[in-house]
Amino acid sequence: MKLPLTLLPLLATPLVAKPLDIFDAGAVALSAVEQWFAPHDDLVDPVRTHLLVADGDEDAPVPELTISQGFSAHHNDLAGICNLRARGGGADDTDNFVNTMKRCGKNSLIIMNSPVYNIRRPIKIRLENSVLSLSGRLKFSDDIEYWVKNAFDLGFQNQKLAMIVSGSNFVLNGEDSGGIDGSGQAWYDYARGVGNVHGRPMSLALIGARNAVVTNWSIWQPQFWAHIAVDSDNVVYESCYVNATSTSGTFEEKSWLQNTDGIDTYRSNDVVISNFVYQGGDDCIAFKPNSTNIAVHNVTCVGGTGIAFGSIAQYDGVKDVIENVVLRDIKLYASDQCRGYQGVYFKSWIGEEVGHPPNGGGGGYGYCRNVSVKDVYMEDIDRPIALTAGLTYLDEEHGKHKYGTFEWSHINITRVRATSTANRAVWLDCSPDQPCHDIRFKDVVVTPGKTDHPEIHQVCNYVMHSDDDGLEGCKPNNSTLESDTGGTM
Ligand SMILES: *[C@@H]1O[C@H](CO)[C@@H](O)[C@H](O)[C@H]1NC(C)=O
Ligand SMILES: *[C@@H]1O[C@H](CO)[C@@H](O)[C@H](O)[C@H]1NC(C)=O
Ligand SMILES: *[C@@H]1O[C@H](CO)[C@@H](O)[C@H](O)[C@H]1NC(C)=O
Ligand SMILES: *[C@@H]1O[C@H](CO)[C@@H](O)[C@H](O)[C@H]1NC(C)=O
Ligand SMILES: *[C@@H]1O[C@H](CO)[C@@H](O)[C@H](O)[C@H]1NC(C)=O
Ligand SMILES: *[C@@H]1O[C@H](CO)[C@@H](O)[C@H](O)[C@H]1NC(C)=O
Ligand SMILES: *[C@@H]1O[C@H](CO)[C@@H](O)[C@H](O)[C@H]1NC(C)=O
Ligand SMILES: *[C@@H]1O[C@H](CO)[C@@H](O)[C@H](O)[C@H]1NC(C)=O
Hints:
The structure is a single chain. By secondary structure, the protein is mainly beta. It has one domain (7-464): 3 Solenoid (Pectate Lyase C-like), CATH 2.160.20.10. 10% of the residues lie in helices and 44% in strands. The strands form 2 sheets. An 11-stranded parallel barrel has the order 12-14-17-19-21-23-24-22-20-18-15.
């Protein structure tokens, strides 16, 4: 892949690509990154030098936006450098930010190193061949009434977005200190105890992004899901951090940090997530419909519902796919604010449409296959490995509807060490209309936290067993002792 990203070698802190052999699915994405960040020995650094000159005159009044020009000796390209300062004093920086991106979002390095930039309205920006170096924080306002009315529509599950980045060949670099402060506390209090409250916007959406890297980028107290990649191709999330903690409420209330997902993928291909740290109350990572060729490596999830395949097949008559996914080196823990509800969780909707998304729906079809999960460590997780083919979030509908036809197959789970809080270690509740098949467990050791119901230690409903699949101890059918996914017995 040829990438004309001439500015990237100029970054002070180059991204070091990981060895390719640990990734299968992400090889394309990763090699692209490797090219972008390959050292160019012959490259002098006139851009940085120029920048220092532009910044150096201490007596001059400091403009909010400084634009200078740089020159890459390597490619003879003209490149802009834009240095945007915050207005300070609590003033709104949204217009300056959006206008800066309009002027500088092409062939440029945009530097934002004030501590805080106040964002009061939804942002949509486009970057081409550019690097956003943000060592400060974009602090989103928490005027709930305003955001519910004005956030962008995602067009999936009726969800909303606070910030959209599109374009190609770009890097969002949080420089280890920057990123987004979602001011999520107001949202957590607003939505306490209720899932998918309408209008909560996701913090950062890549939409239609090609060859994009999000690195060293933190999201503190996301309003809703922190990251989502939509309709994107070849995207790398490297060394990102998401932390959704609540400063109010009792433990049980904090446990309802729901919908604070870490990174979700939707209709995206070739996505790498590596060295990711998450704390929160929902999916650490989730693969939504049409997530293909995904590599996840070295991830720590603290609290919440673990790594989710789905939910999927929520839309009646729509075909959804999850395919070619590799997970390696995953650690999952409970937090002091939230249980560890699931570890690795596969979830597809009931077989008919009941209610509407986000909390209702069903009747979709499709498949998830070619998944490899290896080297997982879990501590105090309620349901370490779980699959349901009868999902609905409408409490009153649980257990009333036939399971769906979404096909789960070719899933290998290898080298797992886990402790669970309860009796259940493995719970695969597949559909009679589309039994799971080619599921292989190897060297999976889960120590239950309770042993009063050994018969449900491993439950496999409608799983077609194959020789040597590691599921010999899995009871074929009688999981009725456990009412639904909420059961932790
Ligand atoms: C399964 O996925 C891996 C990457 O994770 C890929 O290399 C391989 O080609 C896929 N296999 C099939 C049969 O598609
Ligand atoms: C993240 O930023 C820190 C500090 O600037 C730097 O040392 C580190 O190499 C960066 N990591 C990546 C992956 O860029
Ligand atoms: C998340 O933030 C809380 C509060 O600042 C902190 O106690 C906790 O250690 C953080 N979690 C991680 C995984 O860094
Ligand atoms: C795993 O990710 C964490 C968090 O970014 C990082 O500190 C650690 O060095 C990574 N480990 C490896 C082996 O890359
Ligand atoms: C997913 O891809 C399939 C084709 O494989 C397509 O028919 C379907 O509409 C896509 N689903 C979504 C949600 O875009
Ligand atoms: C799962 O393991 C089997 C047996 O070792 C192997 O043939 C298959 O390719 C593996 N599938 C994946 C997705 O890793
Ligand atoms: C459950 O499995 C047992 C054997 O393990 C069998 O006797 C019983 O008929 C099965 N029940 C159902 C509902 O399939
Ligand atoms: C499930 O099966 C086990 C072993 O066959 C049996 O001891 C237990 O009573 C059964 N439970 C139910 C609810 O049928």
